Predict the 3D structure of the following.
Amino acid sequence: MALPSKSKSLSDWYQAVVINAELADYAPVKGMMVIRPNGYALWEEIQATLNPFMRDAGVANAYFPLLIPKSFLDREAKHVAGFAPELAVVTIAGGEKLAEPLVVRPTSETIMYAMFAKWIESWRDLPLKLNQWNNVVRWEKRTYLFLRTTEFLWQEGHTAHETHDEALAEQKRALSMYLTLYREYLALAGIAGIKSKSETFAGATTTFTYELVMPDGKILQAATSHDLGQRFGEAFGIRFQTRDGNEGVPWQTSWGLSTRAIGALVLGHGDDRGLILPSRIAPCEVIVIPIFTNDDSRDSMILREALKLTRSFPARWNARLDDRREVSPGAKFYEWELKGVPLRIEYGARELAAAVVTMVRRDNQSKTQVAMSQLSEVMQATLENIQQELFLQSERLLASHTHEIATFKEFTEIMEGPRGFIRAFWCEEEACERAIKEATHATVRCLPFEALPESGKCVYCGTNARYRWYFGQSY
Ligand SMILES: [Zn+2]
């Protein structure tokens, strides 16, 4: 079945690719999804990328329970207000009405910090840096596989520090880890910056974010890291004896990245043939396809050589041999292109006779014959080149979808037309932010870290403004 055209209808294309490439499927409960092996393998690649960065930063993996006493959330007023409409609550269990309702975690700050209060006694117990790979539930009325689902997988890091400076350094480190994942592995260029007050995480002091523009001009929040200040410490009674013998409240951070990253990867690359996976994140980087001839003795030689070839490749490529007899080469090409494997090696009678292979790039479909003697060098260089080219394409998309504007009329026209990022002066008043959102459905996405103060007038209300912020319509 042919896919819908990506440029004509991104959302139809996206859903067809996710389903046909067997990344995920709709679950019986509305809003929930099943992550299939091809999708889960991408998640495992993301885990395998982030885990060493976390380990190097002294963050240890742990696991906390799914159910949280509702009173825990109530302890931090802003936090409970932030999540109230999205909560799933358990009131009956074991056939009895519970004395206290339990919340299915929308995030784990509250349950983790209740435990932190028990474990942290002195400055010697700090910093405490934990991460968990888990699921969370935030009730959603509509489903958009990977991008918006009621239950999703993520990692949430939570740290407690002696000083605010240390916490700020951790908040920064976590975001820079996400930038490395997105830029160097997922090959997705975006804007890193700080959130406006109203878009800051519930209960946090500041939120750092990485924002991506997708081909349809919508904006996807790719990962966030939060400075929680001392609010949760105070709410949960986390106290520690300081170096000078006084009592202190630790400074905390939290940070997270979800399976939404897979949605960004699919939307951000891909073409009318299906997925295009960057080499460094592809679970399988090379697919080897023997081209059979219907001559049994020759075919067994082709198969033997193709197998030898596949086994000779470096293990990190996870090369696979598709030796199915019942499927035609054309159908195999179609299938592996749909699934986004970066490199295809074709091996048949011609290749056998000439001591070459035919190599086809997924990203630009270019086809070359490579001498066996140079194969592994050429393939390595090509895989690296695919990685770089995809990032350059993503950078070009970001540039062409970012609009510098001066008037609110232009703002409205862009949001009714091509959308994308709008870069404009804003007064930083919440009332103004709300009015812009009502008029255009665009929200303040972030202030880039590298933004310099200027003197300008707010694009909406005309009062003095110091910075050009990024706006856009989010998923
Ligand atoms: Zn304004």
User: Anything to note?
Assistant: DSSP finds 14 helices and 25 strands in the chain.
